[in-house]
Design goal:
2 copies of one chain form a homodimer. Chain A is an alpha+beta fold and 160 residues long. Chain A has one domain: Winged helix-like DNA-binding domain superfamily/Winged helix DNA-binding domain (Arc Repressor Mutant, subunit A, Orthogonal Bundle), CATH 1.10.10.10. Chain A has 6 helices and 5 strands. Chain A has helices spanning 11-29, 35-47, 53-62, 69-81, 127-136, 152-159; strands at 85-88, 93-96, 106-111, 117-121, 139-150. In chain A, helix 1 runs antiparallel to helix 2. The longest helix of chain A is centred in the N-terminal third of the chain and has 19 residues, at 11-29. The two termini of chain A are 33 Å apart. The mean pLDDT of chain A is 88. The interface between A and B is large, with 39 and 38 residues. Chain A binds a DNA duplex (30 and 30 nucleotides) through residues 32, 34, 36, 52-54, 66-71, 73-74, 92. Chains A, B: This is Transcriptional repressor. Chains A, B: It comes from Mesobacterium hydrothermale. Chains A, B: Keywords: DNA-binding, Repressor, Transcription, Transcription regulation, Zinc. Chains A, B: Belongs to the Fur family.
Chain lengths: 160, 160
DNA sequence: GAGATCCTGTTATAATGTAACAACGAGAGC
DNA sequence: GCTCTCGTTGTTACATTATAACAGGATCTC
């Protein structure tokens, strides 16, 4: 898995591929990728950063896809619970998933200057954390890993 | 470092030691552990679980130590920024630190049934996450690691 | 066409977090 | 003593994030 998000890439293609993947996954699993849900995924993909629910809601509102908070939260819940997007707890915001379909334990690199978010792979089994949990008798179901720091683009600016 | 939080221990002593440590640290570093701040730390220690800012505020209010949100948030900010407590992002809540003074990268085990929170040591720097970040040119400053699952006490109940 | 299920629309409100400003108190320097 | 500064406190007002609850619609099944 690559860490994208800080590198240039063919954005339009990246969005189209992700949407197509989501459609496939949904029809394969009997899920409904309704217009609002698909549009929210598209919004997240097109920005390639973490977005708040209300920020998304405003876009939906302008497009006539809904005007009240539950509209955004429902779509986001759907996307998150089926692995098409993730919530970044540190930011109370949401990002599109980089590799939907694969069973994943994502980790995020969050730039504290520009707010960009890169998704990367979590530590597999996470030796120490997993061991500690096992020793304590704790069963891990989900892990949130979020690193805050400086992205390559902002490192220079911050030095000033 | 031990994972405490799921095991029985001498609670009164545990609180007193932690408060004493905090006092020492503060006087050694020219920080003011004011009544409100100390009381908030004590509250967090006595509950040994993650508590919301408003939950803490209500206790302070009953004790005449303050009635408005900023009172709680300021005390919590102080405790967090000086390492006496941590914020659990996943819960939007706060816990007392298990080993203040030591420079730490904490990780949390959060039980999704009973809400108890155990603090443990984070993965060492040579983890996969560190490598990935370095490769991407990202400088990590802080890491949030929060695992959700079942604590030993709740494992049996959840099986039902 | 009755019931089940999932999705949508809407109202209302809960929960979490901050900006901004006035006032207070302790210590430093004169 | 005086006053300047700095960190802390008290307070008002507000911003942001999130959810409960319920009515209506679409679709599918039997």
């Amino acid at each position: 898995m690559d860490t994208i998000g800080f590198a240039k890439h063919d954005h339009a293609a990246c969005i189209q591929t992700a949407i197509a993947t989501a459609r496939d996954q949904c029809s394969a699993n009997g899920l409904q990728l309704t217009p609002a849900r698909e549009r929210v995924l598209e919004i997240l993909l097109s920005e390639h950063r973490a977005m708040g629910a209300y920020e998304i809601l405003e876009i939906l509102r302008n497009e006539g896809l809904g005007s009240q908070p539950p509209v955004a939260y429902r779509a986001l819940d759907f996307l998150v619970s089926h692995g098409f997007a993730h919530k970044v707890e540190k930011l109370n915001a949401f990002v599109a998933c980089n590799h939907p379909g694969q069973d994943h334990a994502p980790a995020f690199l969050i730039c504290r200057i520009c707010g960009s978010v890169a998704e990367t792979a979590a530590v597999p089994k996470d030796s120490l954390l997993g061991d500690t949990a096992r020793a304590a008798g704790f069963v891990i179901e989900k892990v949130v890993i979020e690193a805050e720091g400086l992205c390559p683009n902002c490192r220079g600016k911050a030095a000033a």
